[in-house]
Each structure stands twice: as C-alpha cells, then as structure tokens.
Design a protein that fits this description.
The structure holds three protein chains of three kinds. Chain B is α/β, with parallel strands linked by helices. An eight-stranded mixed sheet of chain B has the order 7-1-4-3-2-6-5-8, with no helix packed on it. The radius of gyration of chain B is 23 Å and the shape is elongated. In chain C, 37% of the residues lie in helices and 24% in strands. The chains are: A mainly alpha, B alpha/beta, C alpha/beta. The complex binds adenosine-5'-triphosphate (ATP) and magnesium ion (MG).
C-alpha cells in the first residue's frame, strides 16, 4: 500500500523534474542569441516544418469545410435558415476547428518528425559531436526548429480556415444552392475580426509553442536507441494532442467564456 | 541551387499565410479598410434584455449601423444598461430616438432596432436613449394572455 | 617520468559512477603536452567515458580535470564551449552530420569558428580530406560512405581546426591494413608537425604502441599501469602482460562482471 503511494509520488516527482528540465531547455533555446548562421537554418526549418505540412493542411481544411457545410445545411434547412451556413462554417473554423485540427495534424506530421530527427541525431552522437566542436546544440538544432514551429502553426491555421471556408462555399453555394450574397453577408455580420480571427490566431500561436516545445524536448531527452526514439515519437504525438485539447478548453473559456 | 528553391518555397508559404490573413479580415469578417472602426457610444436602459448579448447588432430599418459592446446591470435604476457602438457616419439619430429589442425570425438572434424621432438635436457620444422597449418574453406574453382570460 | 613534467591535462582523484557501478575510482591521469598518449584497456572499462569527461560532456562525481588551468567540471556552459574550441574529438561512431556533404562536414568547424574566405576554406578542407585519402569523396553524403570511410572523414573533421588537443576514439577500427598504416602515420605526423597533443583510445596494440609516447592501461576503475612502451613491456605485472599479449585467461577478466556462470545456468 505504502509502496504504491510512494511509487506514485516518485512518478509525480519524475514528471515534475522532466517538466522543469524541458522548461530550462525551452528558455535556453528561446533566449539563445542567434548566431551568424541562424537565418538559413531557420529558413530550412520553416521549409521542413511548415511548407511540407501544407498539403495535409490544405486537403484536410477543404474536406472539413465541405463536411461542415453539408452537415450545417441539413440541420439549418429545417428551420429555413440555410443562409446561416456560411456563418456557422466560418465561426466554427476560425474560432475552433482551424487552430485545433491544424495543431493535431501538425503534431502528427511535423512534431513526430522533429522528435525522431533530434532523437536520431542524439543516438548517432551528432549532438555530442556538435558540442565538442564548440557549438551549442540548443542554439543550432533546437532553437531554429522551435521558432519555425511556433511561426508555422498560425500560418497553417489561417490557410486552413480560408481553404475550409472556400470548401464550405463550394458545397453550400455551388452545390446546395444557397444564395451567395446572404452566405457571405451572414458570415461577415457574425464574424468579428478582433474577437474571432485574432483569438483564433492566438490559439494557434499557443498551440504552436506547446506542440513544438513538446516535440523538441522529447527528441532531445529521448533514450538514444531505436526503441527509445520510437517511444519518444509516440509520446510527442500523445502529449501534444492532449496539450492542444486541454489548452483549447482553457483558452476558449478565457476568450469566449463570458458570452 | 537547392537553397534557392527552398527559399522560394518558404517565401510562398509566408505569402500564402499573409494572404489568408487578408482574406479572413476582409472577406470573412467584413473588415473594411477605409471606414476604420470609428464609432461613438450610446446607452439605453431596458427592463429586460431577453437574450441580447454583447456583439449583437444594432440596426435601423434593418440595416446594421453598429453593435452592442457591453451589458451591465444599472444599480440605481435596477435595469439593464446596454452600451452600443454606433458607426460614426450614422450621425443623424435624433435625441428622442427609440430603441427596441427585436428578434430575427421566430427563434433567431436578438438585436436592437432604432427608430428616429423628430427632435432637432442629435445623439452624441455618451447620450442615453430614453425611449426603450424591452424584449418580448414568451412566458410573459403567455402569462398575460392567461390572466386576461381569467378576468373575463 | 620526464614526460609528465609538462602536462596539458591533469586529472586528480577522478571518480565517476554509472548507477551503482564505479567506472573510475579516484584515478590520477596526466597527459603530457605535445605527445601522443594512448589509453588502453578492456572493452567497457570507460575509455570513451574518460574522453567525454575531458570534453566536459559528463560531470564527474568527484575530482578535478584541469586543462591548462581550467578545471573542466567547474566551468560554466559558456566557458565550456570556449574551451572546446581547443579540442577536436573523433567519436567512436564517427558522428558525421547526416544532412551535410562530406565537404561541408569537414568545413563545419572552420565556418563556425573562423572568418576565412570561401576559397581558403576550400583549400583547407581539401587538404584535410587529401590527408585521409578521401578528397575524391568530397561531394558524397555521409549515408553513401562505408563505415571505415566515415571514420576517416570524421578524423579529417576533428583535425580541421588544428586543435591543441585531439582525442581519437578508436580511429583504426574498421580500416583495412593500408588505411590503417596511413592513419597511424597521419596521426604521428600531425602530432609532430602541428605540435598538438593526441589522446588515442585503441585496441590495436602493435599500431598504438608504435606511435604512442606514453600509455595508460586502465581496468577495474583503476589505472593498471602507465609509462612508455618500453616501460610497459618491461612491466613484470601479470595483468599488463596478459593485456599486451592478448591472452584470454589471466587476472584481467574478459567477462563483464556477472553472477557465477554455472549458478546462472542451473537456475534456469
Ligand atoms: N549512457 C550510459 N548509461 C549507463 N551506462 C553506460 C552508459 N554509457 C556507458 N555506460 C557504461 O559505462 C561503461 C564504460 O563505457 P565506455 O563506453 O566508456 O567503455 P569503453 O571503455 O569505451 O569500451 P569500448 O572499448 O567497448 O568502446 C560501460 O561498461 C557501460 O556499461
Ligand atoms: Mg568506447
């Protein structure tokens, strides 16, 4: 009985310690003064983290927008208010679905890749090698990846929104025959730039920090074996997804809770 | 050469992001660049606001001229004090305008409709609209109806 | 003991443990300046660990590692990176950066720490690659190299900046006899020409003894013996004899510490 409680306490302390360590790593990476070569490294990471995630983001955005439109139509048409489809699609995308779904896809697509890459660099002693050459891996490897991830997610999320709304319009206007004028005007009346769009962006930014942080930390802290890296990769996806959903609730409560 | 292509792709990515933001601002949320967000504040006291919330629209003859920015309970009057932001180009609302809480459709959202009066003076920033009509509450209507039936 | 009068590294009372197992137990090691020092011992005794301790990648539990008046374990992160510019290390696994070509790998330390022109970097890199016989492989990616080739590229990278102290972790493993001969000569020649200090970890006794000025034999968390090749050959100790002659049985255990073999078999 006591040993179980003790084990629980030990596990808790372990987690807390890991959290503290990851915080130290994050701060060292974030506040590292960029060196001469920082810019090309950052561009390189924007490419592999951001550009390479575009396809999956665009395709998912398109389909989610189309499905939302279709589902919204079948419900709203019963009340004769199918013009509100545009408003519904836009609001749910901009406020909620774009940041969350983008972050989840990002965790699976880019986060896991980051963890595996960094873990493998550790396993093949490339990180040690950097250290011995006198280059801080936190600056050279972690920092550009972190910044690139943090910047990419809001961009991807906005692209997701636009593509999703376009998909919603394709289904709603072109296929189901909602009058285009009311589709847009309803949307414009209900979507507020500073409340909805900006808040959605803030969410995406917070998710970007969380997902990238978890991904680089898991890679940096992984056990340098093939098993250890595969576990770290799984952990990245699981922890990042949970973090995104949890943070989303908190942020939503803070942003829209008083409505 | 490889680096060039990569930089190009990243450049396009940034551009796509910026463009998306522009679309979200102009096309989706209907932000207009020229008008800006200049507006003036007008207040009104209501007995009952029904389901009115902040950000509900304020209209005149069905045309949107502003939105509700805050709703608080006025401690002196014990009524709901609604703060509205009216677009500053709508500067022809007379001081004796009336505001009523309306519903779009049977189950639709609540909004404020404003009708102007005949006064020479116009509403200024910070003024109160005196003549208000509260939301119709279904339960009260039914209650009244039953009460009328009973007294007959 | 004339070699030890001028030492670049002075390790005093160094203790380091992995879990419960002591890898080093209060050992003293001094590395003579400008010479080639070999560190030898059975597999798993902590030779790589020693190099990592010197490089500041591991912190000892106790003791000092003084490199030119800097006590490595006590340095701040920033000072440590400064000190490491004076070191070059060839990792046991090579540890090339897989996202860069062979050329870029060797050029990397030069780019990071100097402001040389592109032309000069090119010259230096080709020179280093030529020295390890891989000038022709400059444009290949690390994934296209054989294990032995990768190690030679890593060696070229370790000496790219002409550091004061070069640590070679098993540079000869996986090399054919010709390459091995070339590398042995290369290490000896570099040492003479540039006057830097070399530490070699190796199991190739004859090659190593041929070029090493000074040798440390470590086993069982202790320094078993140290001295010049002559002194070691003349060492009467049974353990030293066993290691130098490569005999399977003797006081130095071939096996990693374990329970009694028979007992363990019977248990199953
Ligand atoms: N990351 C680690 N965690 C736990 N124990 C380790 C770790 N790395 C090494 N060890 C242990 O430390 C001991 C010394 O390892 P080290 O790599 O220094 O050996 P070595 O002398 O270089 O051996 P070899 O000649 O085979 O390369 C080994 O017995 C190993 O069990
Ligand atoms: Mg080793």
């Amino acid at each position: 009985m006591f040993t179980k409680i003790q084990a629980l306490g030990a596990a808790g302390l372990d987690k807390l310690e890991a959290f503290g360590r990851s915080g130290i790593i994050l701060s060292q990476a974030v506040f590292a003064i960029p060196g001469r070569q920082a810019w090309p490294l950052f561009i390189q990471q924007l490419y592999s983290v951001g550009v390479l995630s575009l396809i999956i983001i665009i395709v998912s955005g398109l389909f989610i927008g189309m499905v939302l439109s279709l589902q919204g139509y079948t419900i709203l048409v019963d009340y004769g208010s199918e013009q509100a489809v545009g408003q519904m699609v836009a609001l749910s995308l901009v406020r909620e679905l774009s940041p969350v779904v983008t972050a989840l896809l990002f965790a699976g697509r880019a986060g896991s890749a980051l963890t595996a890459e960094i873990g493998l660099m550790k396993a093949t002693e490339q990180l040690s090698s950097l250290e011995m050459i006198g280059v801080d891996p936190l600056r050279r490897i972690i920092a550009p990846r972190f910044w690139a991830g943090m910047l990419s997610l809001p961009l991807l999320s906005m692209i997701f929104s636009v593509v999703g709304i376009w998909g919603g319009m394709l289904v709603g206007v072109d296929w189901l025959g909602i009058y285009e004028g009311s589709f847009w005007s309803n949307m414009q009346n209900s979507v507020d730039f500073s409340e909805d769009v900006v808040n959605g962006l803030i969410k995406a930014l917070v998710f970007g920090v969380a997902v990238t942080w978890i991904a680089v930390y898991q890679g940096y802290d992984s056990v340098p074996t093939s098993e250890g890296i595969s576990q770290a990769t799984t952990r990245t996806v699981v922890y990042a997804s949970l973090a995104v959903l949890g943070l989303d609730f908190i942020l939503t409560a803070l942003m829209f809770g008083d409505l | 050469m490889r680096i060039r292509g990569l930089e190009l792709a990243v450049g396009f990515f940034m551009l796509a992001g910026a463009l998306a933001l522009l679309v979200l601002a102009l096309k989706v949320s209907g932000l207009t660049l020229s008008e800006g967000s200049r507006s003036y504040k007008v207040y009104a006291l209501f007995e009952n606001i029904g389901g009115l919330t902040s950000r509900s629209k304020v209209t005149m003859s069905g045309v949107k001229i502003g939105h509700v920015t805050a709703i608080v309970l006025d401690e002196d009057q014990l009524m709901a004090r609604v703060e509205m932001a009216i677009d500053s180009n709508v500067n022809y609302l007379s001081l004796d305008s009336s505001a009523s809480i309306l519903t779009s459709g049977l189950l639709g959202e609540k909004y404020i409709g404003i009708t102007t009066g005949a006064d020479e003076e116009m509403l200024q920033d910070g003024d109160f609209i005196e003549d208000t009509q509260s939301a119709l509450v279904l339960e009260e209507l039914i209650g009244k109806f039953l009460f009328n039936e009973a007294t007959e | 003991m004339s070699y030890l009068d001028d030492s670049i590294i002075d390790i005093r009372q160094l203790s380091f443990a992995r879990g419960d197992r002591a890898i080093f137990d209060a050992v003293d090691i001094r590395i003579p300046r400008g010479k080639i020092t070999a560190v030898m011992g059975p597999s798993g005794t902590g030779k790589t660990t020693l190099l990592r301790l010197i490089g500041g990648q591991l912190k000892p539990d106790q003791g000092q590692i003084v490199l030119d008046n800097d006590n490595i374990p006590a340095l701040s992160r920033k000072e440590l990176f400064k000190v490491r510019e004076k070191m070059g290390m060839l990792f046991q696994s090579g540890a090339l950066f897989t996202d860069m070509s062979v050329f870029e790998n060797v050029a990397f330390p030069i780019r990071v720490h100097t402001d040389l022109s592109e032309q000069m970097i090119r010259d230096v890199v080709l020179m280093k690659l030529h020295a390890v016989g891989l000038r022709g492989a400059a444009d290949m990616m690390p994934s296209e190299l054989s294990g032995g080739m990768a190690r030679r590229v890593a060696l070229a990278r370790a000496i790219a900046l002409d550091p004061d102290l070069v640590m070679y972790d098993e540079p000869f493993t996986g090399q054919d006899p010709i390459a091995m001969g070339v590398l042995v000569n290369l290490i000896a020649r570099l040492n003479k020409a540039l006057g830097h200090t070399s530490i070699i970890v190796s199991h190739d006794i004859n090659e190593t003894l041929a070029i090493a000025d000074y040798i440390y034999l470590i086993a069982d968390a202790k320094v078993l013996a140290h001295g010049t090749a002559e002194e070691l050959r003349g060492n009467g100790s049974e353990q030293v004899r066993q290691f130098l002659d490569g005999l399977p049985d003797g006081p130095v255990p071939f096996h990693f510490p374990a329970d009694d073999y028979l007992d363990q078999l019977m248990q199953g």
